[in-house]
Amino acid sequence: MRGIDHQQSQMFSYLSPETRVRKDHPLRAIRVMVDEVLAQLSRRFDAMYASAGRPSIPPEKLLRAQLLQLLYSIRSERLLMEEIDYSVLFRWFVGLNLDEEVWDATTFTKNRDRLLQADVAKEFLAQVVAQAQSQGFTSDEHFTVDGTLLEAWASVKSFQRKDGKNPPSPDDPGNPTVNFHGERRSNQTHESKTDPEAKLARKGKGKEAKLSYSGNLLVENRNGLIVSSEVFEANGTAERDAALVMLEQLPGTKRVTAGGDKGYDTLDFVAECRNLQVTPHVAQNHERRGGSAIDDRTTQHAGYRISQIKRKRIEECFGWLKTIALLRKVRHRGIFKVDWVFSFACAAYNLVRMRNLRKIAIQAA
Q1: In this structure, which long-range contacts are made by residues 180-185, counting pairs with CB atoms below 8 Å and at least 24 apart in sequence?
Q2: DSSP three-state, residue 216
Q3: What is the pLDDT of residue 49?
Q4: What is the C-alpha separation between 362 and 332, in angstroms, rounded?
Q5: Closest alpha carbon to 191 in 214, 170, 167, 166
Q6: Chain segment 222-244, per-residue pLDDT in tens
Q7: pLDDT in tens, 76-112
Q8: Cα gap 248→242, rounded to integer Å
Q9: What gap in Å lies between CA 184 and CA 198, rounded to an integer?
């Protein structure tokens, strides 16, 4: 019998978003972990808001919505609000009922800026890592460091002379035609007018130079979870400087290992690692003047070979952050905001990875 094409004319629904999301949906496991983290941050949120006045968007809902943007590769806050408005799944994850009004994109962004100022992303990542440690998912002895370039949200046209001696534009001053051929441009003489903290950098010889930031990770070697993150200005020493900062922040006093590529094989970095009770398991760079900074006393051990195998897993983190979280070209300006969204994206990656690890553990039990 043919069914009748009923139109959606009912004004009331007696089903909540909770009943519409299937019990084995991947977001359910993530929501449980997120709620546990947010409960730990509740006191931090209390200190951020005034005790009187008009209620703002709850910070818990702001962060859950921000997670959805990263997990589902949503390119803008305006599109995120639209997705939350008509998606029952998204409303359930954020904590909105079906008849609740979704926020304006500008209102959402302004409320989120309060979280940017409080550096909640670092705390959120730390709480996620603490969860992983309590479940035995992380190593406390063996780590890997690496960095990558994050393209800034700034046009190359905005990279102009600091002294203001730029040639006048013969056409549209709002979008002038600029010919860079033959002009020597560097970070010492030029800066971006739209994002002054972005620096001109390139991945290697023969590669195109772009306005970028240096995104750096510290990853543990057991399951490839991100332990710490730092965003520095893109210069020749950013990766090594960020690695030392992250290694210094590791808790405890026992000796640990840190794997890395040939870019970390320098005398200064190796010496500073040893001062921090860190054994540098970096790849040897025999092309360096004077030879490699580490010798057979380090490379002869089986642990060094294992670190060199494990260190490649950090590329999986960078791949997810750049493709799924859309950080290949960041959509925020200024190193502070870029660092915030980079750290929060690292927490999102860990949540996805921990969900999979929990599933594997349950199946093996």
Answers
A1: 180/156, 185/159
A2: strand
A3: 80
A4: 39
A5: 166
A6: 999 999 999 999 988 899 999 99
A7: 999 999 999 999 999 999 998 888 899 999 988 888 8
A8: 10
A9: 18
